[in-house]
Amino acid sequence: MRRSKKFFFLTTFILLFSSYNPINLKKNKSIFFPIKNVVIEETILIDKNQLRLNLELLKNKSLFFLKNKWIKDSTKEFNFISNISVKKIYPGTIKVKIVEKKPIAIQIVKKKKLYITENNELLDYKDSNFYRNLPTVFGNQKNFPLFLNDIRKINFRIEEIKEFYYFDIGRWDIKLLNNKTLKLPKKNYIKSLENYMLLNKNKNFEKYNNFDYRIENQLILK
What we know:
The chain is of the alpha/beta class. The chain has 5 helices and 12 strands. A hairpin with a 3-residue loop joins β2 (about 80-90) and β3 (about 95-100). It is elongated and about 75 Å long. It starts with a helix and ends with a strand.
């Protein structure tokens, strides 16, 4: 008897939802855990109001049948999204968590501002207090994240860098917040930076604003 009851329940369930098409829920309200609330965690560069407006399209769709594709389709215009996860909270709420791509510098090419991300993507600049202290990169250098990573490896204080200047011959200048400029050679620039870090601890070098390492095995101070 129990078997027949179980079979009847399963058959009824299948009949009810076999014709169920969650894709068409834009027009029809789901009767099976309809989404009523969309909660979005705080974002930095992504327009949260616009994001909320896009995700409003998910309302009345079934929370049970919610597909990742629906989320991706609703958020594909936001190129600052690195990853997105959704938590279902029954009976009718979804909680959306956004991981944003992280800018590491502001690049200026032909007077246009762009963000350079950790993955070496160039994204449209958006004014943000959170990233207001990022260094500025002048010049069209495609491998800036690799250069910055080399600097980090020697524990150079990135927060003291104001500007990077890339020259087409393949070398860099670095301007610091204290207005000192480091003119680096094309090769072995790490050695030059390590030398500056050493000299910077010596008060006898405080009066110099230009540290020119462009000529091999020489340092010109001005």
